[in-house]
Amino acid sequence: MVDAVPTNRIILRVKLAAAFYEVDQAGSGHAALKMLRTQRPDMVIAAADLPDISGCDLVQRLREAAGDPRLPVVLLHSDDDPAERLSSLAAGADDVLTRPLDELVMLARLRSLLRARDAEAELQLRDDTRRALGLGEMGQDFETPALVRLVPTGRMPLARQVRSELAQRMNDRIELVAADAALRVDGQVPDVVVILEGADSHGEGLALLPQLRSNKALRHSSLIYVAQPHQRREAASALDMGANDLLGSGPDTEELVLRLRKQIARKGISDRLRANMRDGLRAAVSDPLTGLYNRRYALPHLGRLAERAGKNGRDYALLLADLDHFKSVNDTYGHAAGDAVLQAFARRLTDNLRAADLVARFGGEEFLIAIPDTTRAQAKATAERLTQIMAQQPIALPDGRHITVTLSIGVAIGRAEEGEDPRMLIERADQALYAAKDRGRDTVVMADTVLSLTRRAARKPRPAAPKLRRDAARDPAQLSLPGMTREAKARRG
User: Fold this and answer.
1) What per-residue confidence (pLDDT) applies to 454?
2) Equal CATH topology for 147-282 and 295-459
């Protein structure tokens, strides 16, 4: 709280403390700037008539001293002078309050500003983390012309005039929509919705706010509530019900233009940050080469799939597919050709599987496919179809040549009634895949036909030391091992 008059500071401090805010006080602009070297306030409320610094100059200097361009700053004016109010808003003040302060409206404004600050800070933090991980670059400023929707309620004869004056002062689209059509979105989603309460309104605009905020298409639109001077309770309630900004003295066009520009800019920044966050999340769970999901996404997805299978009583299948002799593709044709093969295989998988089936790159040239609600026979048929597609359709390389790459697949079935851990299912599919490789590749092996590696190792007898034939002891070339075939013995001989 920055004010040269001690009485003003004390009165405001008592009101804010009663609302459970912690308040630090400064008697001048320079004292406030000095305090910001060691403190990081959530908001600054400053008198616009300080003796050492004007309110308009103080706004920018406070943010520079705090190192936070989004630090909320509210200026207090002694008189309700529209010209000074507009000057303060144009200088960057987040809001302007006039003494004597309406405590109800003031506290609602502070809560709204702090919520907006926290939301922007969270989005910015996620965006910074995303870029720190190398998942994106700095976004561009929001420059697309915005769509502003005016929604008058009650008797508002000046609504068309407001629309016309806004259109003359702004390069954005301004549309006038009746209150009963405010929730309808047929084309472009409005960036800002302005509710204009009429003088005879009985809270119709206030009732619209929660509907607009909960509407799927409009929930990210900025909302400005324009109340009449006698609607102070409606004004205070509007901010707590989702309005981003407030005009409490009717539709002053000049002030509305300034607040609209600020809300349009904030909406653009928020949209960019949300888009960056979505892209970052998508990048975190996607393979950049093939566009498929990666291992990080696949493992928890399998857990949910197994849980659903248990509830529905339906089996599901897990396929591990591996491209045969893929290393030789890289060695013979180059890594660009190898990338082309992986991308072509990924496209063939997605083109020949259902939307409900999970396809993920599990590592290298190995791919995981999870098929819900499927039987053993259906899973085997799907796997065989995929191997046939790969064997019968050569892949075009970047240099124009074509090569045929075959596929080996191990298939394991998750039984709904057994509730098997998906990790064990992956292990069984992996054993089946190894068996497919051992059988010559370009084939499908079902996991239930393969003896597990653990059981096989446990049952396998320890081999006895080979015995030499007496007549070959002097000639190692004539060495014969137990179980050696006659042809092998002839070759060794």
Assistant:
1) 43
2) no
User: 365, 384, 420, 427: which one is catalytic?
Assistant: 365
Cα angle 266, 272, 273 (rounded to 5 degrees) comes to 90
Q: Which CATH architecture has domain 6-101?
A: 3-Layer(aba) Sandwich (3.40)
- Catalytic annotation on 365? yes
CA dist., res. 478 & res. 440, Å (int): 31
Q: Is 418 a residue whose pLDDT tops 90? A: no
Strand partners, 195: 151, 225
Q: How far apart are CA 135 and CA 276, in angstroms?
A: 9
Between 326 and 80, the more confident residue is 326
How many C-alpha atoms does 155 have within 13 Å on its Cβ side?
A: 2
The string of DSSP codes covering 240-304 is HTT-SEEESSS--HHHHHHHHHHHHHHHHHHHHHHHHHHHHHHHHTB-TTT-SB-HHHHHHHHHH
Q: Tell me, yes or no, if the pTM score tops 0.70.
A: no
Q: Where are the domains of the chain?
A: 6-101, 147-282, 295-459, 465-493
Rg from Cα positions in the chain: 35
User: Tens digits of per-residue pLDDT, 429-480?
Assistant: 999 999 999 999 999 999 999 865 444 444 444 444 444 333 333 333 333 3
Look up the CATH superfamily of 147-282: Response regulator (3.40.50.2300)
CA distance 271 to 265: 10
- Residue 202's contacts (CB-CB under 8 Å, 6 or more residues apart) are 154
- In Å, what is the CA distance from 274 to each residue of 127, 192, 205, 282? 8, 17, 28, 12
Per-residue pLDDT reduced to its tens digit, 159-169 = 899 999 999 99
Tokens of 212: 């607009």
Strand partners, 370: 318, 358
Domain 295-459 belongs to what architecture?
2-Layer Sandwich (3.30)
Contact 383, 409 (CB under 8 A): yes
Q: Is the pLDDT of residue 280 over 50?
A: yes
For residue 319, what is the enclosing H or E element? strand 316-323
Show Cβ contacts of residue 196 under 8 Å, excluding neighbours closer than 6 positions: 150, 151, 152, 153, 156, 159, 162, 205, 226, 251
pLDDT of residue 468: 37
d(CA 373, CA 312): 9
> What are 301-341's pLDDT values in tens digits?
998 898 888 888 889 999 999 999 999 999 999 999 999 99
- How many residues in the chain? 493
What is the phi/psi pair of residue 243, to 5°? -70, 140
Mean pLDDT of the chain: 85
Q: Which residue has the tokens 């085997």?
A: 380
